[in-house]
Amino acid sequence: MTKWIEKFPQELQAKVKQVDEMIAPKLAEVDEIVLHNQQRVLDLYRKHHVAEEDLVGSTGYGYDDIGRDKLEAIFADYFKCEDALVRPQIVSGTHAISTALFGALRTKDTLYYMTGMPYDTIQQAIGIVGDNPGSMKEYGINFDYSPLTAEGKVDYAAVEEKLKNDSSIKVVAIQRSRGYATRDSFTVAEIKEMTAFVKKINPNAIVFIDNCYGEFTETDEPTFYGADLMAGSMYKNAGAGVAKSGAFLVGRHDLIMQAASRLFAPGPGKGEGATYGYQRDFYRGFFLAPHVTGEAVKGSIYTAALLETMGAEVSPKWDAPRTDLVQTVVFHSEEPMIKFCASIQHNSPLNAFVDPIPSEMDNYEDRIIMASGSFIEGSTIELSSDGPLREPYALYIQGGLSYAHVKIAITNAVNETYFK
Ligand SMILES: *Cc1c(COP(=O)(O)O)cnc(C)c1O
């Protein structure tokens, strides 16, 4: 039998072996997190008596959709919140965030990001970039933010000043994952501290979390520690690559009701919304999410470790604490970034035969290169890589349904980029 590794140059084989030994204890830590989270999810499926009939879904208005209501109760329980909205009609993470914010905010209110500028697509919804009809700006909702410190941490002095002097701040937003920035993602412990800080100065401020990429990477979630409202995507961590679309919100009951009024119509609110063929995928996806997220996190650890041994600049470092799926590799120039990205594409289960070409994308400001050969389009719980072609040429690598796939794809990409 020829082993998968034997096609690579000796030097790369030796590096892989060295990396395997180095990261083994770190991978074992991930296994412990997976076990903890899997136990909690299983307990909730048992507690809520999930049964075959919950998986069927409803049609038309979707009144009395017991499976839908049960899944939302499970999400609320898992995230230790009063209520949840888990719907196929929320088409993306961006849509979930936009729905949550439009639900909570009114004209003359201010949305304030304490973690620097928000993720690119959210800037469009706010109206900071682009000139999109129906943006928050058009509704007279104000936006403000405080840049992070040079170390990429929250500037607490600046936050304190804003909160004390601007009584129009109604929502304080925290983005857990780095998005297309080179800062570190914020751990749940850090978000806990931010939430407590905000509440101490302004107890009425609504603390909102963009949790995209974060779920299940730790044993805790921001909503365990006082965050009022939180958004995530079903085709990232929480859907395990099984959910075909959808996103979710969890949080305080009144805020979930407001978001539902915005998503659907005021009146029926969350009592409506058929789930047709989605429920089985949602239930199965959420059940598998602790495991699949663990696989992806292990893949990120391997990616960081192997690229570090190649001398590349990576963030987070292989042994740093992890709170999301994103692994950044900085290439400092266009060519290796495109080469590495292409290799990921060529080692994907779908569309392996195409070459990614840098291009403009709706909702993004710069040219983007993107590799994704996923079963669910844009599902970044599946292995993908992307990044804007601008300094410092940072490629964001995330996801992986199985550790084995990530290991194979990344080893091939390293071979293509550094050994050819
Ligand atoms: C992915 C992501 C979003 C938006 O999610 P989409 O499903 O791509 O719209 C928002 N914020 C962060 C930090 C993300 O990583």
TrEMBL record:
Pfam families: Met_gamma_lyase (PF06838). It comes from the Bacteria. InterPro entries: Met_g_lyase_put, PyrdxlP-dep_Trfase, PyrdxlP-dep_Trfase_major. This is Methionine gamma-lyase family protein.
